[in-house]
Design brief:
Chain lengths: ~120, ~120, ~120, ~120
C-alpha cells in the first residue's frame, strides 16, 4: 500500500544503515578510544552525518518535496565523515558505509555519482 | 568494533523497521484514505508507535542503561498500534510489523513474550 | 561557555517554537477537527514544517557548517505551512509562528527577508 | 486552541531548555575541552540526557498516554547528567539546567520532588 519507489527505499535503507554505523561507532568505539577519535572535527562529522542520514530518511518516508534537497546535503555530510574516518586506521567500516550512503543520496538528489 | 549484542541488534532492526512502516503508512496511506484512518485515536497511535520505535533504537545504539526501560514502553506503544490497525481491513502489514517489534522489545526489556 | 551567536540562538528559539506549534496543533487540534484539517496536503505540510524546524535547531546547536543550508530549506517548509494554514479560519497562531520562523531562517541562511 | 495544561507546557519548556544546554555544551564546549569532558561516562550521560529530554517533549506535545512514564525516565537521565557535570569545575550551568528539568519531569510523572 505504500507507494515509495524502489530507488527511494534503497536510499532510505542506505541512510538508516549509515546512521546506525556513525552514531553507534561515535558513541561507543570513538569515545572508548579517545585521542584522535574524539577530536572535535572528527567527532562532530560523525554525529552530523548520523543526524543528516536520520533526518533525510524521515523526510523520504513522508515523500516530502524537499527530500531530494535534503539528500544532496546528506551526501555532503557523508563525504565529510568518510574523509575524516579515512585518516584513522580502524574506521574502514564507517568509511565504506558513508561512501555507499553518499552515492545513494546523490542518485536520489539527481546529482551525478562520484567518479 | 561495535560491541552491541546480537539480541540488541535484532531489536534495533525490529524498531527501525516498525518505525518505517508506521510513519510511512500514516503519512501516505492513512492520510490518503481519510475517514477511520485519520481518526485521532488511530492516527496518534501510529505516530506514537513510530516515534517510540525510533527513540528506542537511538538509545540502544548508545547502549544506554535506560534502553531496556524504553523498550518496555515501546512494546506497549506497538501493541496499542497493532490493536488500532486490526480494526481496519487494509492495515495487516502494519499489524504484523508492530507485533514483531513488540515481541523484540519485550525480549530486550526482560519481560516474558506475549502468549 | 557556549559560543553560539545571538542571531543563531534567536533562530534556534524560533525553530523550536514553530516546531512546538506545528507538531502540537497537528497532533491535537487538526486531528480533532478532521475535514480540511487532515487533508494530506495540509497535514503533511504541518508535520514537515515541524520536523524541518526540529532538525534545523539540532544542527545549529552543533554549529554545523550545513546549518545555514538547512535553514534555507526550513524557511521554505515554514512558508508552505503558513500558506496551507491561511486557507483555514482557525490556524492564525500557526500562520504567525511559521512566518516568524521563516524570517529567522532566511536571515540565518543569508537570504533577504520576505518583503 | 491547544489544550496542553500549564504544568505540561512548563515541563516541555524545561525539557527543550535542558536538551539545548546538554546537546549544545557536549558538541562544542566538551569536545573543545577534551580530557575529562570526553570521557565516555560523562559524554554519554550528556547526549543521553539531551535525547531523553527531546523525546519526552515530543511525546508531551502529542499528549500521549505514555508521556508521564517517559518523563520519569527523563528525570533519571537528568540526575545522572547533573551528577556527572558536578564533578567538573566548569559545567555549573548544565548542572542547574538538569536539576530544574529533573524536578519538572518528576512533577509531571507524579513522583515526589527531590528533597
Amino acid at each position: 500500500m505504500r507507494t515509495i519507489s524502489k530507488e527511494m527505499q534503497a536510499c532510505i535503507d542506505a541512510c538508516l544503515s549509515c546512521y546506525q554505523m556513525c552514531f553507534g561507532m561515535a558513541m561507543s568505539h570513538c569515545l572508548e578510544q579517545g585521542g584522535a577519535h574524539v577530536k572535535p572535527k572528527h567527532f562532530r562529522a560523525m554525529i552530523a552525518c548520523a543526524e543528516m542520514c536520520r533526518d533525510s530518511a524521515h523526510m523520504m518516508l513522508m515523500d516530502w518535496t524537499q527530500a531530494k534537497s535534503l539528500c544532496a546535503l546528506c551526501a555532503e555530510a557523508c563525504e565529510t565523515c568518510a574523509k575524516e574516518c579515512e585518516a584513522l586506521p580502524d574506521m574502514k567500516d564507517c568509511v565504506d558505509e558513508c561512501r555507499r550512503c553518499a552515492d545513494a543520496c546523490r542518485k536520489m538528489s539527481g546529482q551525478k555519482m562520484a567518479a
